[in-house]
Amino acid sequence: MASSASSSKKTLVLPEVNFSDWGDIRYLHLGTEWVQGSMKLDAPFEIELEYVQRMMAWLLFVDGKGVGNRHAMQLGLGAATLTKFSRKTLRMRTTAIELNPQVVSACRGWFKLPADDLKLRVVIADAAEEIRKSEWHGTVDALQVDLYDHEAAAPVLDSEDFYADCRALLTEDGCMTVNLFGRSSSYERSLEKIAAAFGADAVWAFKPTREGNTVVLAQRTPSRPKREVLAERAQTIQTRWGLPAPKWLRVFKPMTLSLTT
Question: At the top level of its lineage, which domain of life is listed (predicted)?
């Protein structure tokens, strides 16, 4: 569920946006065969891809009763899967930042993204620049970062400064989840940058999916909930929102960051 993004003011050539249907699944593409997001045609507000489900792991760190009062932000709209789930299913205030206006139009026309309302706002902007605006600082409880170009080789925004800007968006108990996909060396470098911006004790990570997506979570305020607390919350997440959270706990752990360069 990736998206184009760039901090350059130079002439920007945005990729063509199209979609394909395979069985009961619709896929978003940015002019290549790489999948940038998906939607079940008969269940458009569910999360179909495993790694996208894991981007909701921040729910393990909050009381489920107050989720509807929180603010979710997505950097990179993709097929609007996280945006729709946050707004429609979790009933959260939801903001998505997307560089490519064609992606927004595609999501509204082909992927059931609702129109903006009092709790949903889609901002067409460069994510790197938009998140530096003071209006967003300290307001985001769940930040979900999925920023890839049409080749999906490595994250487009992936510097220590960028992750520090992401941390500044978060409330005290807020979390960032990031999709890291690409060569293993790219993953290690990304993890080091996240740890440098958030602190090594704030970082958790899933094992990679079969497709090679690794979701990393970083907390504004590090915590280590007891296993029984996580298990109880995971069961609540599955019961209330249909996400396979109990399975997450088998492949999701705090990082002991002894990274190699």
Answer: Bacteria
